[in-house]
Write a structure and sequence with these properties.
single chain; alpha/beta
Length: 256
Amino acid sequence: MLRRALLPALGWLSLTCAAAAQTLNFPPLSGRVVDEAGILDASTRDGLTQTLADLEQKTTDQLVVVTLRSLQGTSIEDYGYQLGRAWQIGQKDKNNGVLLIVAPNERKVRIEVGYGLEGELTDAVSKLIIENSILPRFKVSDYAGGIKRGVEDIVQVLSGDAQEWQDRAAERVSLDDAVSPDQAVWPLIMVVLGGVAFLLFCAIWGGFVCRAILQYVIFVMLSSGRDSSRQGSFGGGGSFSGGGGSFGGGGASGSW
């Protein structure tokens, strides 16, 4: 009896979660700087736009700055890679796009890196830029200064100084980054316990419920990974668009 009552509830929950996974609304890609949060003045936006255009002209890499009114209840990591894929920043054959994302209301910032640039703009380098150049300025509400300095550093990395930045990131020793053996083993323990719990659940409730759960998980993964069918192109003249690049979650985040 309990099993029969539970099945419709699980089906309803799966549909609800699937719908929730599709509710993120992204601002239009109106230029190289999308200031949805309204924290940048016109002069700053124009200066950043020129810097980003020069970078693309020199390297073909696309860097876009975006400020958000809200993360819409999701993490900046989830929002970031989905936004990069929706906008298709970077060239399709190179996946050389980068997003500098600022969510002032949630006090979050992220450097989202396309597949093709993860070897240059590594997670460690992105974190170094955020912690050294961006967060100190954000903490005193200097959003324009933090964004400009962050952009300058990213441009340096992508313009040929990647190895120097990677060396600096490797040399940085921080107690916050140190992971003890006990801390390192806990994620593995949790994965094993989760797997055992799932097998026990399947043994109790049967294969139908397990298949429904797995189908939902696969659906969410495919939905989040689905690229837009619209293929962008590099902007010319007064227009700008993504070039068909994709993202896989590389980069780093910070908060203040």
